[in-house]
Amino acid sequence: MRLACRARPKGASGGPASLDLFCPPEASAVMKPKTSLIGGQIDDVVTACRDGWRVLKHRGPSKLQFWFIALVVGIAAGYAALFFRKGIIWLQSTLYGAEDIKAIHSLAETLPWYVVLVIPILGGLVVGFIFHWFTPDGRVRSVADVIEGAALQNGRVEVKAGLASAAASLMTLSSGGSTGREGPVVHLAGVISTKISIWLKADGITGRDLLGCAVAAAVSASFNAPIAGTIFALEVVLRHFAVHAFAPIAIAAAAGTVINRLEFGDVTEFSLNQQGSLQFYVELPAFLILGLVCGLVAVALMKAIFITDDLASGWQERFGIHRVLRPAIAGALLGASAILYPHIIGVGYETTSRALTGSMVLHEVIVFTIIKTIAVAVTMAGRMGGGVFSPSLMVGAMTGLAFGLIATGLLPDVSGSETLYALAGMGAVAAAVLGAPISTTLIVFELTGDWQTGLAVMVSVSTSTALASRMVDRSFFLTQLEKRGVHLAAGPQAYLLSMFRVKNVMRVSGDPLGPDEETTWKAIETGAIIGPDATLEDALPVFETSGRTFLAVAEMGKAGEAPKIHGALFYVDALKAYNRALAATAAEEHS
């Protein structure tokens, strides 16, 4: 029997000119070229991969796909944090000749004074050249920039300046700078997630989630703290606890932790000589007071950094100091201080460990706390790079120990160990600086392995954060952004307006729903005018004061020239754009 294909209409509406070629199944089988079973399976796999990649690129990843991407991001960010830490160890050992960098302070006491002085100066010069060549403003990128990227840039951060900041911070921490490694590591992780977001053409929600994954992995790999790393990404960077983001961020944090433990083992950063003992109920008021003291100390640390930075910027402008020299001058001040107080060098884990084990006397603790605060302010005001978290741990541990020595000395019969106060103080100052009471409480537990004193730490952390957040804009990072004119501390209702340009919301000239030319000119004559590059943040106060329903959008010409009219911004259009943005933000935070 001979099988044949015949023409038939395409459908009910198909006419003679609308024909389709119909082949019986048997005819189709005869017409298909013969292929092997394996070859057909390979073709199916290739087609499925091609279709999957097309969907991934244009519609974003599915939940399961995104978890695999989160794992990849976590591994990449974890290794970035590991290599950064290993780089500090190698370079600091090379410069100072230390076999164990956790004993760098003890070693520095035995070095010639000129070595201690010169190393930070040379390090500052290298940092100055890095920032001069690779950043437009000579400023280090850190956690504040990652928070801004999450809120305003769809989860993206600056790549070139971020890599330069990581290199500069590596040199700073290795050559005597008195900061921490978490700031540059977090931004370096943000660079990794940014490249992946660009590659995937990720939307805002996906980009922010990828950023959270990278940050969680970096923090977890830096401190061997997976729980704290996960909560830090949600609490500090994304600033919400959406359920959809938790699983991928936790996966990335676990990947970062595994990378850390493969290299350093399952050990805590700090070892305590004894478990803290808490005389319940009787001793809790002391920890409330400690929280208030730590809140004031945290505010003093933050204010010292900001005031010193303003002074340094003023002196730089007044005396015409080249920005390459600013970190070198700060290095000279640090080197001179380190001759007498070597504990200010680097991250400061040796001194923090001594405070947590009670191996310091009262006057030593007080002096070291003051000197460390000054050193941190000089380092950051000198634009040398680094973060503020590790210094706040050190300052907090010494503050808590000082308080504990005084408290246990005054009331020895009702007081526990002074090292418990050091532990609580460490968490209280760090939480107030970061504005992150939950993740800081967890990271203190994971850094020390002491989960038995949670009540004391929580009481101190809560009171310190509550006090400090009233005296600054929520945290050190949000205050940094506020000083740059980025208003994130008040929440989305404040910063979303700055994301909309007037020219993207206005009704262009000639729009039938817009005002006629005569009405527009009358608005200009009454001062109801705004530029096309202004934001809704600039426009809404003008609406409030003028009481008008629309503003003329125009560029003012030179003297004697008429303004160039672009269109009109209606109050209702501005409110609609704002409401849509608020709704989208709320939907993301509650998804």
The average pLDDT score comes to 86
Strand order of the largest sheet: 3-6-5-4
Structural class: mainly alpha
Can you tell me the overall shape?
Answer: globular
Q: Give the DSSP E fraction (strand runs of 2 or more residues).
A: under 5%
Got a strand count? 6
Could you name the ranges where pLDDT drops below 50 across 5 or more consecutive residues?
Answer: 1-35
* Sheet with most strands: 4 strands, mixed
Total count of helical runs of at least 4 residues: 25
Give the proportion of residues in helices.
Answer: 55-70%
User: First CA to last CA: what distance?
Assistant: 62 Å
**Radius of gyration over all CA atoms, rounded:** 30 Å
Structure description:
The protein is 67% helix and 4% strand. The strands form two sheets. It has a four-stranded mixed β-sheet, sandwiched between helices. The protein has a two-stranded antiparallel ribbon with strand order 1-2. α13 runs antiparallel to α15. The longest helix has 36 residues. The N and C termini lie far apart (62 Å). The N terminus is likely disordered.
